[in-house]
Structures are given as structure tokens and as C-alpha cells.
Amino acid sequence: MGLTLTLTGLTSSLEALGHDQEQLLEGLRKAMAGMGTAFYTTLLGAILGGVLLRVFAQITEQGVEGLFDRTMRICLVYCSADFKPSLERDIRFLDAEMASLGERVKFLQSAFSASRKSMEEFREEVVNLRGLSQEERTSLLETIEMNRQAYMLMRQETRLMKNLNRTLWQRCKDVLRFKPPRTRPPEE
User: Fold this and answer.
1) Exposure winner among 130, 155, 168, 188, fewest CB in 10 A?
2) What pLDDT digit, counting tens, does each position of 41-59 carry?
3) pLDDT level of residue 151 (50, 70, 90 thresholds)
4) With contact defined as beta carbons under 8 Å apart, do 117 and 110 qualify?
5) Domain ranges within the chain, ordered by starting residue
6) What is the C-alpha to C-alpha distance for residues 62 and 67, in angstroms, rounded to an integer?
7) Which residues of 126-150 are buried (b: 16+ CB within 10 A; e: fewer)?
8) pTM of the predicted protein model
9) How many helices, marked H, and strands, marked E, lie in the chain?
10) Confidence at residue 18, expressed as pLDDT on a 0 to 100 scale
């Protein structure tokens, strides 16, 4: 892929050699990008290829069990510090827990400050409402009542729309649904 991009960039550069400077620079940029892609893909292939060849060689020499044993030994050597009880491990664990606790405390502090701010705003609104004149209070109560009525109308409209939007089949089933009248047991 990188080689293809490099050749494409060089081809467009050579076509613009004596004619267009911008096209020449653009072609050289494409060629350099292609060379970079080629380099990185080659490097990645070499690294992954080396790892895979090492794994396949291990499997060929000692079988899958040998690979498992070798992997287990490597893990035990490098990870055993976390498995073996020690003061260092406990200190690392406590440090992590303390950091987590610190983050939670910061979150709680921000939540408390936000609620304190909201309570202050609410308190200011209550003070403002107490300072209203009788005329303003009446106007406010009328507005609240109008909003309550508008809410009730919208609720009724929603119920009606829900009933209207039912399918024809559902309406027919409701109309044709026969409910036998309840009969009382004979009294003796």
C-alpha cells in the first residue's frame, strides 16, 4: 500500500516537473506520505512477524504445553508482586482507594455547592414573592390557574388523540366486545 502511494505521488510529480509548481509539491507530499506508510507497515510487520515466529517456534519445539508453561512462568515472574501478600502491595491498594475516595469527596462537594446555590436562588424567589403587592399576587394566581387549566386541556387532548390513533381493528374489537351481564345467584 505504501509503495503504491509512493509511486502515485512520484508519477504526479514527474508529470508536473516543468509545468505546475503546486502540483509538483503536492505529488512530492503524496510520495513522502506513501513512504511513511510503507515504513510503518514494514516496521509493524517485522515486529508482529518476529513475535508470531517466536510463538510458532516455541510451539514447534515444545508443543502447546511448553508455550503455556513459558507464558505462565513469565506471568508469575512479572506479576508475582501483586499476588504475594506484602506491605508494598497493601500500600498501593490503599493509595488507590484513597485516590478514589478523594474523587468521590470532590464530587460530593461540588454537588453540595450546587444544591446550596439552588437553595439560595429558591430563597431569593420566595423573598421576591413575599414582596409582591396584592395586585401582583392576584395576577400570579390567575396565571397559575390558567396554566393548570391549559395542562388539563392538553391532558384531555392527549387522551382523545390516543383514542383516535388506535387502529380500526382495535376500535371494532372494542365495539363488538360482548360482555354478558352479571347474573345473581338464585337466592334460597
Assistant:
1) 188
2) 888 888 888 888 877 777 7
3) very high
4) no
5) 1-88
6) 7
7) eeeeeeeeeeeeeeeeeeeeeeeee
8) 0.30
9) 5, 0
10) 63
d(CA 157, CA 153): 6
Q: Which cell is 21 given?
A: 509548481
Grid coordinates standing for 121? 436562588
**Cβ-contact 2, 37 below 8 angstroms:** yes
Given a cut of 70, whether residue 4 has pLDDT beyond it is no
State the cell numbers at 144.
397559575
For 163, the grid coordinates are: 383514542
Confidence of residue 177 (pLDDT cuts 50, 70, 90): confident
Give me the phi and psi of 36, to 5 degrees please.
Answer: -65, -45
Cell of 185: 345467584
